[in-house]
Amino acid sequence: MNIGILIFSKPKQALEQALPGTAALVRAGKQHGHVIHLFYEPLLTIRPGNNSKGIEVLYENKPFPVCDAVIPRPNFLEEPSLHITTIEALTHIGVPLLNGKEGFLPSKNKLAQKLTFTKAGIPVPPWSIVRAPECAADAATVLGFPLILKVPFGRGGKGVFYVENQETLLPLIDYLNIRDRNPVIMETFIKEAGRSDRRAFVIGGRIIAAMERTAKSWDIRANIHSGGSAQPIILSPEEETLAIRAAAAFDLEIAGVDLIPSKHGSLILEVNPHPGFETLSEVTGIDVADAIIKYVEQRFIHVS
């Protein structure tokens, strides 16, 4: 098969960011005898075309190569709608995409996640989305302290803040409003979780690996990129069902789903359509990249 990996940054930036899992996917693909192509979104051109599709997509000023499957790795932090044209154009010309346009772009928006999960009846920590600083105090009164503040776009624990009281809340809300002018997510801090969460890796509606992440004693962010530690864990049937439902809510074929235990049962924190899996593979001994390539083989039946 000809398998593409679509990266949403320039080649130099991608190298500097050391994109999680990309090298492992390339290795696994080649071990399975496939040809792997790396595509960088900034090198794409989209224009009207004199063809049956009416649209032409170029890569480095040449027609986009024929691929049996393309795995998007949406490593961007900005507003997801800026990238919808790329996904829609590739879909329109017939490029087979994993986590297609209905999946990963909406799930990159944490505001949309809260609303989508709640509408679907998927349990999450109590939350509010506030746009005006003057509304934050009232929302905090309803939710109770301590709180977690989250910006709409971020990864690796960046843009996540712990707030103990009104005195610390309002200056932070003011700062974020001036800096970003974006809505802010306010979320009840789940004390009983002990500053830990669980990451489930979903491929094709199945959990293939899971780990528990624990924050440093001076932090509340359990993300590995924020200094958290990890150990393998076996999820309960309830947690497995929740993780699969969370991925399905955004039609994600591949997803990292973060859960947290609470006195009311397991809750979904968020879903990640661009999950890193190097640490997960290390602590569980499961070759996640190999599992992804095997799924691609099964999902896209035709072989070049």
TrEMBL record:
GO cellular component, one term: cytoplasm
MF-aspect GO terms: ATP binding; ligase activity, forming carbon-nitrogen bonds; metal ion binding
Keyword Metal-binding: yes
Ranges where the ATP-grasp domain occurs: 114-297
Keyword field: ATP-binding, Ligase, Metal-binding, Nucleotide-binding
Statement: the UniProt record of this protein carries the keyword RNA-binding: no
SUPFAM superfamilies: Glutathione synthetase ATP-binding domain-like (SSF56059)
Domain of life: Bacteria
InterPro entries: ATP-grasp, ATP-grasp_RimK-type, ATP_grasp_subdomain_1, Rp_bS6_RimK/Lys_biosynth_LsyX
NCBIfam families: rimK_fam
Protein name: Alpha-L-glutamate ligase, RimK family
